[in-house]
Design goal:
The chain is mainly beta and about 240 residues long. The protein has strands at about 5, 10-15, 20-25, 40-50, 55-60, 65-70, 75-80, 85, 90-95, 100-105, 110-120, 130-135, 145-150, 155-160, 165-170, 175-180, 185-200, 200-205, 210, 215-235. The chain has a single domain (about 5-235), classed as Jelly Rolls (Sandwich), CATH 2.60.120. Strands 1, 13, 14, 15, 16, 17, 18, 19 and 20 form a nine-stranded mixed beta sheet that branches.
Length: about 240
């Protein structure tokens, strides 16, 4: 099928006391054979981390990891000497490359919330990379803003894959168009907050739709809405 909807309550759930997670795709103890990823997109984890808690040093390799912080402050350290704070409205990028250890903790001042996104790279190995970008002052109202791209266009973060992440914040009643997906590519539309209508279907907060057809879609905000779109190769 070329237009597949997944509701928020169909996601995997993990509850660890200090960590509250919802998984769009199979992850950790949550396994769903039908939900192993979407093309090059492997993980969308919707995480809430309690103040002062987090993930201790652990390894990654051969994965492009993007963290979109939506609340509070995330504190990052890694084995290559990178150490920084990522605030709500900022985005962190780490290319694990041939291997890296890192830790992520919510600041002691309050709870942190984020989307952690994993994308398969288009090349294995290589030196790990780190970057972060502040999008708090970028106007997102009723227009697409590119957060992640393969070439860093429009001040986005460049990653090692022909993949894009874009966002918009729509006022109630406003519409925006989603360009057709080219051959062997797909788009995943994820409603962070609010409610939109696409192709006659209403999607609420944390709902998503996967699109793999060459067709233009119109998104209409039924209430003020925040939307993410992932545009990835399907091979």
């Amino acid at each position: 099928m070329a237009f597949i909807i997944h509701k928020a309550n169909q996601r995997g759930v993990a509850e660890h006391g200090w960590l509250h997670s919802h998984f769009s795709f199979s992850f950790a103890e949550y396994y769903n054979q039908a939900r192993m990823g979407f093309g090059a997109l492997r993980v969308i984890n919707d995480d809430i981390i309690e103040a002062g808690e987090g993930f201790g040093m652990h390894p990654h390799r051969d994965m492009e990891i993007v963290s979109i912080v939506t609340k509070g402050v995330l504190v990052h350290k890694d084995s290559f000497g990178n150490h920084g704070e990522i605030h709500a409205g900022e985005i962190q990028y780490m290319s694990a490359g041939s291997g890296v250890y890192h830790s992520e903790f919510a600041s002691k001042e309050g709870t942190a919330a984020l989307f952690q996104i994993w994308i398969h790279p288009n090349q294995k190995g290589g030196e790990p990379l780190y970057n972060q970008r502040d999008f708090r002052d970028v106007t997102k109202n009723n227009q697409w803003v590119t957060l992640v791209s393969p070439d860093g266009r429009d001040h986005s973060i460049a990653i090692k894959q022909d993949a894009f992440i874009a966002t918009t914040e729509l006022d109630e009643g406003k519409t925006i168009f989603l360009a057709p997906s080219s051959s062997n590519r797909g788009k995943l539309v994820f409603v962070v907050e609010g409610e939109i209508e696409i192709d006659g279907v209403a999607l609420e907060s944390r709902d998503e739709v996967q699109i793999t057809e060459n067709k233009t879609y119109e998104l209409k905000a039924l209430k003020p809405s925040w939307v993410l779109v992932f545009d990835v190769p399907m091979h």
